[in-house]
Specification:
This protein has 89 residues and is of the alpha+beta class. The chain is built from three helices and five strands. A three-stranded antiparallel β-sheet has the order 2-3-4, with helices on one face. Strand 3 and strand 4 form a beta hairpin. It is globular and about 35 Å long.
Length: 89
């Protein structure tokens, strides 16, 4: 993932908080993926408006944990392979 890439939830998927599950879930026509807290926090920032660099900076500030770039990048690469996100240049 390049610093200026803008990840966004792919068409056909919807991210939402599910109180019954106490977790974010990713809904799609064939089913649902229950996300762990980290995945939910990352994907909730993937609107296509923020760059990868901005998302990482926001997460680092929110959780007072520097050096999250590699972890976030690995997760977003996985999310892209699954078709959950699209990367806008």
């Amino acid at each position: 993932m390049n610093p200026d890439d803008r990840p966004a939830i792919s068409r056909g998927f919807r991210l939402q908080w599910e109180p019954a599950q106490s977790a974010h879930v990713l809904l799609y026509p064939e089913g649902m993926v229950k996300l762990n807290r980290s995945a939910g926090e990352i994907l909730s920032r993937c609107s296509g408006a923020q760059t990868f660099e901005q998302i990482v900076a926001d997460l680092e500030q929110t959780f007072a944990r520097p050096g999250l770039g590699d972890e976030v990048g690995h997760f977003l690469a996985h999310a892209s392979q699954q078709g959950w996100i699209e990367v806008r240049k």
